[in-house]
Amino acid sequence: MRRINLDACPECDVLLNRAFPVMGEKAHCPRCGYLLQRPRRHSIERTFALSVSGLILMMPANLMPLISIKIFGNSNDGSLWSGVVMLIKDDMWIVAALVFLSSMLFPVLTIILSLLISGHLFFDKPNPNLAVWMRWLQHLDEWAMLEVYMLGIIVACVKLSSLAELKFGFGLYAFVALLMVAVTLSSGLDHYQFWQRINDMQKQQA
Amino acid sequence: MPDSVQRTAAFILSGYALYIPANIFPIMTVSRFGQGEPHTIIGGIVALVESDMLPIALLVLVASILVPLLKLLGITLLLFCAHFRWQINARLWTRLYRVIAFVGRWSMLDIFMISILVGLVDLGGVASVIAGPAATAFAAVVVLTMMAAKMFDPRLLWDYQR
Ligand SMILES: [Zn+2]
User: Fold this and answer.
1) What is the DSSP letter of A3?
2) Beta strands of A38-80 (E only): which ranges?
3) Closest by Cα among A119, A126, A141, A134 to A48
């Protein structure tokens, strides 16, 4: 049987001829406008390099003080983790869990998954779990919310600025760097190319 | 996805139910020198306006009040479309669905801000911030509406169009 190059649009299910966009072009579904493909240069290499730097930034961004506060000689500093700990102390379990998952665990997992996937593709090592990891990465991407947390830091600082003396800690710089890595990581990942490589690898194995 | 409409409806109804306590109960209590002052979501926005921080006040208003409400109403409309098979401009409505799915995460702004304040402003008798019951309700609203958007299958809008 001859293999026909047909793809179904993931959002409206219309059958489409396979598009061949070149670098810088985008392929949209003609019916619903869904972004089908967006080729990225050196996507595998870039994803690999970015996830390694993300891994390095993870610990300082999560555990070191973001901001320190001083009111009448009393001072304290806060990190991502200390906020979660205080919420647990106040018995706000649901809120604490949600903050922990969306600002710490899921961002970390997306970086680890990106590293695993791009590493296997970069070194040409087939692995039966690659497709599972890809699907998890796509799910987790939605629930990792570093950029929203950044906005939360800004609003909190504005609220406190008239009441207290604020100082930015090293954790904040690490956090901003981690945020930039996470954003470039998710926008630079060429899903179509990744899936194509994973399928090719599996075919070679079989 | 099986039962997409029913599941989405279940999440949306729970979302409506929790939107009310999220807005009437205090979301945090700010204590200064032992004097506790509970704030609702609206109260926090009013406080920002009073201290001349209008842009930030607008930002919080959009993220904490308007986005959750528009999400609830928007997904309800999408459900009606899919269930009653209204003849609609499916391309336009799919775009609405995408906007709803995209903006949902920004509602977490207030929750993150509270987490930062609670961890940072912990100065014993001088000043402290404690999260209130509305924080749990509001966090639940955000998760429920995100789940609803995820459960809704945009294919439903296309299937019956002529
Ligand atoms: Zn489509």
Assistant:
1) P
2) 67-71, 74-78
3) A119
Q: Do A152 and B112 touch (CB under 8 A)?
A: yes
Residues of chain A numbered 58-77 and touching chain B (CB < 8 Å): 66-69, 71-72, 74-77
CB A39 within 8 A of CB A188: no
**Å from CA of A189 to ligand 1 middle:** 21
> Measured in angstroms, how far is the CA atom of residue A201 from the centroid of ligand 1?
28
Please, which residues have CB less than 5 A from ligand 1, an ion?
A 9, 11-12, 29, 31-32, 34
Could you read off the pLDDT of B65-87 as tens digits, one per residue?
Answer: 999 999 999 999 999 988 888 88
Yes or no, beta carbons of B154 and A151 under 8 Å apart: no
Alpha-carbon gap: A123 to the closest alpha carbon of chain B (Å)? 34
pLDDT tens, A127-180? 889 989 999 998 898 899 999 999 999 999 988 888 888 999 999 999 999 999
Q: Which pLDDT score, from 0 to 100, does residue B2 have?
A: 67
Quick one: DSSP state of residue A164? S
Question: Long-range contacts of range A125-129, CB-CB < 8 Å, 24 or more positions apart?
Answer: A126/A201, A126/A202, A126/A204, A126/A205
Could you say which of B94, B110, B118 has the minimum Cβ distance to residue A86? Answer: B118
**C-alpha distance from residue B11 to each of A94, A110, B77, B109, B142 (Å):** 17, 26, 14, 21, 11
**Is the Cβ pair B120, A31 closer than 8 Å?**
no
Residue found under tokens 């919080």: B60
ipTM summary value = 0.91
Q: Which residues of A touch B153 (CB under 8 A)?
A: none
Low-confidence stretches of chain A (pLDDT beneath 70) = 1-6, 206
CB spacing of A148 vs B117 below 8 angstroms: no
Domains and CATH numbers, chain A: 1-39 (no CATH), 41-205 (1.20.140)
| Look-up of token digits 């979301």 | B27
DSSP annotation string for B72-132: HHHHHHHHHHHHHT----HHHHHHHHHHHHHHGGGGGHHHHHHHHHHHH-EETTTEEEEE-
